[in-house]
Amino acid sequence: MPILHSVIHRIDKASSDQPATLHAASSELPGSDRMEALLAAFHEAYHGKTKSWGHFRAGEDGETQQAFVQALEDYLEARSDFVAFTRDIAGRLLPLIDAHLSLSGHLLFVDYRQGDTHYLSLALLHHREGFGIASSLEPIAAPQLNLARMSLAARLNLTQWRDGAASRHYLSWVHDRGGRKLAEEMAELMGATEGIDATGETRTLLKAFSDYVEQEDLPEEESREKTEALIDYANDQARRGEPITLEELSELLDEQQPKAFYEHIRNADYGLSPEIPPDKRTLRQFRRFTGRAGGVSISFDSHLLGSSIEYDETQDRLIIKQVPKQLKEQLKQRQG
């Protein structure tokens, strides 16, 4: 993950009723293994966050949008250097940080490549008290970066944006449930608009998969294997900050019929995008309930509970509203 440029500015805020002040760095950071390690740790924390995904608004319909994008273009076209660019953006972020946050922190900016893709990431990093061991073997206070508390951060796929790709999600920014207003103002500052609902799209993808498994009437073992393959692939993409590609997923699910799941999605018109930013929270909720006792074997996807399947705890009953087609035919034959 070669780092092309990196810089860290400091934001000081003594208390919630004191204005924040910017202490801007005068030069870039030298390349180092520690900086590479910090970027890797940032990635791991960032990809686990709930995010909005989108793109810059078309046209020049706002002063804020013009300022952010213009500053970015000036840097990329070498009309300004990285330090000047990041100081400009840090100055624009300062009122937003002052209005919504009460802690000091450091603004990290990194321009880097990951494979063939060019990225720009920024994040406000907070600290927490920790401990270390001195050379005298005594415990000492050692402040540490608290990457889990990342309330303001964004990542831009410069390659997709600069190539003029039709992607609606080359830009992402943190959107925690407790910081909705902060996320909205961050998007406004960047001139960004949401282009895809990652949570909704992930949920729809899982629904399409469940429909596919039911339609194909797959054996329980094969259904479980495909479920695990889907979740493993989606989680891996989430860890790398990459989207789920429907065609790639379809090939992974069935090597003998690599287009089967993809065609199922298209034929049923689920309205899914070809590429979907995975939502980790939604993926964590997707699993299969399985049970076997007294000659009865039951297995179903967890999201069906409460819709086509209900559990009556007081009566100890499982109510299935949509009986699988193959089972229905067997029951009819039995009754006949």
Task: Describe, in plain words, how this protein is organized in 3D.
The chain is an alpha+beta fold and 336 residues long. The chain has 3 domains: 3-196, no CATH class; 199-285, no CATH class; 288-335, no CATH class. The protein has 11 helices and 18 strands. It has helices at 33-47, 63-76, 82-100, 158-162, 180-190, 198-216, 220-240, 246-253, 260-268, 280-285, 325-335, and strands at residues 3-12, 21-23, 51-56, 105-114, 117-125, 127-128, 131-133, 139-141, 144-145, 153-157, 171-174, 192-196, 244-245, 275-276, 288-293, 296-301, 309-312, 317-320. The strands form 6 sheets. Strands 2-1-4-5-10-11-3-12 form an 8-stranded antiparallel beta sheet, sandwiched between helices. The N and C termini lie far apart (66 Å).
Protein traits:
11 helices; 3 domains; alpha+beta
Brief digest:
The protein has 336 residues and is α+β, with helices and mostly antiparallel strands.
| Main pleated sheet | 8 strands, antiparallel
SS element count, helices: 11
Residue share in helix: 40-55%
Secondary-structure element order, N to C: EEHEHHEEEEEEEHEHEHHEHHEHEEEEH
Alpha-carbon Rg, integer: 25 Å
Number of strands: 18
Within the largest sheet, what's the order of strands? 2-1-4-5-10-11-3-12
- Total domain units: 3
Approximate shape:
elongated
Distance between the termini: 66 Å
β-strand percent reads 25-35%
Poorly predicted parts: none
Quote the average pLDDT: 85
Q: Oligomeric status of the shown chains?
A: single chain
Structural class: alpha+beta
